[in-house]
C-alpha cells in the first residue's frame, strides 16, 4: 500500500506491517474452516444415520438424527456470517502486504499471483458458502421440513467439493505466510536487516 495512504489513514504499522500485533485474517480463516467442516460432516452423519432413536448411549451421548441436522445448520450459518469478516480482514491485510519479489512458491507462483488467486478465491468461497447457506435454509424450512433426511445428496456433494476447494485455497494462504513471509513479524524484521532475537523477547 502507498505510504502516503497509510499516513492519511493514520495507521501505525508494527513489525509485522499491520496496525495490530497479530494478523486477524488467519484467526477468522480457522473459525470459518472449523464451522464449515463441522457443518458438512454433521449433515453427512445425519444423512447416513437413518434411525430415529438415540445412539451412543454407552458414551452418554443420546444423539438423534435431527440433532445432527441442527448442528449442521447452525454451524453453516455461523460460517456464512464469519466468512464476511474473514474476507474483509483478508483484503485489508493484502493491501498492507509488501511481499518479497523475484521469489516463487512451491507451486511456481510469484507473490503477486498468489495474492491475486487467494483474494479472488476468498470472494468466490464467500459466495459459495452464502449460497450453500441459503440452499440449506430452503431445505430445512421449506423443501424438506417434513422429511427425515433434511439435506439433499446434491447439497452434500457440493459441500464435499467445497472442502476440496478450501484445501487448495488454504494452501495458497499458507504459502503467503510461510514462503513469502507476509505479515510474519520475524520475516519482516529480517528483510529490514534487524535481528528478531534482539527485539522479540
Automatic annotation (TrEMBL):
Q: Name one Pfam family in it.
A: DUF2231
Query: Domain DUF2231, which positions?
Result: 22-185
Source domain of life is: Bacteria
- Keyword match Nucleotide-binding: no
* UniProt cross-references to InterPro entries, sorted A to Z: DUF2231_TM
User: Where are its TM segments located?
Assistant: 28-50, 71-92, 112-132, 153-170
Could you tell me the keywords of this UniProt record?
Membrane, Transmembrane, Transmembrane helix
Protein name, UniProt field: DUF2231 domain-containing protein
Amino acid at each position: 500500500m502507498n505510504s502516503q495512504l497509510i499516513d492519511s489513514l493514520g495507521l501505525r504499522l508494527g513489525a509485522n506491517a499491520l496496525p495490530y500485533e497479530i494478523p486477524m485474517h488467519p484467526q477468522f480463516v480457522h473459525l470459518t474452516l472449523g464451522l464449515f467442516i463441522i457443518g458438512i460432516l454433521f449433515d453427512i452423519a445425519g444423512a447416513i444415520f437413518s434411525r430415529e432413536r438415540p445412539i451412543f448411549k454407552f458414551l452418554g451421548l443420546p444423539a438423534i438424527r435431527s440433532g445432527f441436522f441442527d448442528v449442521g445448520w447452525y454451524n453453516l450459518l455461523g460460517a456464512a456470517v464469519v466468512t464476511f469478516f474473514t474476507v474483509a480482514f483478508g483484503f485489508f491485510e493484502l493491501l498492507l502486504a509488501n511481499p518479497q519479489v523475484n521469489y516463487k512458491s512451491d507451486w511456481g507462483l510469484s507473490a503477486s499471483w498468489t495474492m491475486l488467486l487467494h483474494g479472488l478465491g476468498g470472494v468466490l468461497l464467500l459466495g459459495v458458502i452464502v449460497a450453500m447457506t441459503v440452499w440449506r435454509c430452503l431445505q430445512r424450512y421449506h423443501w424438506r421440513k417434513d422429511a427425515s433426511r433434511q439435506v439433499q445428496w446434491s447439497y452434500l456433494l457440493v459441500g464435499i467439493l467445497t472442502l476440496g476447494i478450501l484445501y487448495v485455497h488454504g494452501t495458497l494462504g499458507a504459502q503467503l505466510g510461510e514462503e513469502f513471509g507476509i505479515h510474519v513479524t520475524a520475516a519482516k524484521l529480517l528483510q529490514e536487516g534487524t535481528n528478531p532475537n534482539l527485539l522479540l523477547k
